[in-house]
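QA checklist item 7 of 12: single-chain prediction sanity check.
[x] sequence parsed
[x] length recorded as 403
[x] structure emitted
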Amino acid sequence: MNPHQKELIKATIPILRASGEDLTNYFYKRMFTHHPELRNMFNMGNQANGRQKSALANAVLAYAENIDDPSVLIGVLKGIGTKHRSLNIQPDQYKIIGTQLIASIGEVVGEAATPEILDAWTVAFYQLAQIMIDIEKEMYQENSAKPGSWNGWRKFVIKKIVEESTEIKSFYLYPEDGKEITNYHPGQFISVQVYVPELELLQPRQYSLSSAFNPEYYRISVKRESGIAPNPSGYVSNALHSKSEGDHISISAPAGLFHLEKDSPNPLVLISGGVGLTPMLSMLETNLNNIQNKKTIWIHGCRNESVHAFKDQITTLKEEAKHLETFTFYDTLEDKNESQSEIIQGRVDLHKCKDSILLDQAKYYICGPEIFIKTQYETLVNLNVSQENIFYEEFGPQLINLN
């Protein structure tokens, strides 16, 4: 881009701040009208609840604000790229996005979107698209080089389903072709593709792998979400909970930047809320299997005992690994009994276990809803934990950036 075009992009920043979500809302409607086949690739739950539109608006604004040096966004772009790789996004699809986005800018902004501004945004978008294409090309190549891996979708069989709580089921997924499956880093996810009759669409969703790697199968643990029409955020989880052993689904190879450092000797603090415990369980199992006597703290919060998944497994691990310390918080606790003697009533409060978690050079991992992550992150920072040692993942489109 030339300097004049960059100045034109920066001149649109006030418009993006004021009307960014109006623009992205219009963009998605326009794109799905012209390319209805793309509805099979987008999470229509996040379309309905506005999260995808907000995430795109934030991304477009961030790009405009950093148009002089887009390289400062490389960490965020890699996060988007790893999800795109898991969804098998291809370079030619960026052309569709570009055409629809530029047209949307012209139609939403109106006369203020002069031909010169639209030309500048066209150059800007395809500059960004090329950055993303290059990032994703490298990811596809790295993925192809892994033993047992694949790009795109691969059929798996659900050979076992286990109820972990009143809301969460675990699905044990074995490759239909019986061939090798690739290893993964604890904390990573797979994309699952299922047909949703209510929408008459294929729908992808990302689910964290919830166990240490087993060369025979992948395990995901899925919470049944209650949101159905008019908000389809629960369509895929309900479709999965309706599956039976022996059913087939398509999945992509493991992906994700949120994972443990390999063989790190640092103390480990895992903090989760609700179904956010799934990647943490993979981290915990892998950590206990690979590194003996490494101080590890497990902190989990949920509404009550009935929705508390894997509680017996955590108890067993604690009995076997004396260097593992656990803290469990229930929002509500009725008639506290002997089995609940170690339960802390209320939302997760790190101040109540700060003497245990403030360990020299510890690494802190947080997973859960947006407000949960913000609360725990801010508490750790206030307790003088270095931001460089705090890692987090929000389920769904990334809406928070705490660093």
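[x] summary fact logged: The chain has a mean pLDDT of 92.
[ ] second reviewer sign-off
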